[in-house]
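sanity check this chain:
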Amino acid sequence: MMKVAMVEDHVLLQELLASLLDDVDNVELIGKFNNGKDFLESLNETRPDLVLMDIMLPELDGITCTRLLKERLPDTKVLVLTVLTDHEKMVRAIEAGASGYVTKTSGIMRVLEAIRAILSGESYIDPCITNELKRNSNAIFKEANKIKVKKNDRQARFITDPLVIKKIMSLTSREKEIMRLIGMGEKNGHIAEKLYISENTVKVHISNIRRKLKIKARMDLVLHARSAFDETENLPGFQTV
């Protein structure tokens, strides 16, 4: 049985989410918290497997709460549920350790889809946010010479940065194909089956991709692939096999 906690200061939404969890098999709601401080103080007793986390919380915001939670319980998954749709907040949440990010305006079925994906070991980013990134990235690419990227600024070097797009274009055909499949949510074993190569070979390619793009976390790699692929794949030199 997977233990789920929610950190949400709106009582009505708490009840709605509690009802939603009834439709998820092998899940037990172990706690509802109105603020991040009370939630963190409960960790020694609750030790949840998944946390549904709001960002705009009293006393301690959800992003800080996520970071502190992951420091204490690194295996606990976090799904951020928020009204905020800007990709900067999404990047900060992922950097803090969240496995998923869904806007509250997306609807109950999308929240349920995200919960099931994360409990299955996958990541989940709300399509409304990735679609917005795709719409913006082409315009940003055209303005490449006007953009100044701060050194060592991970948020500034997110996929909307044309320098990152250029690095993606420099990948080998096989690396591009593997990155495409990662962006589609495929796991290493499935990628190996589709490309008729060993899983160890897939891992070597992923290691090379991370090194070339200077990416450490697989979630960041997923975000790069999902956000930029539609914009880069039709550019010169970006054909895949």
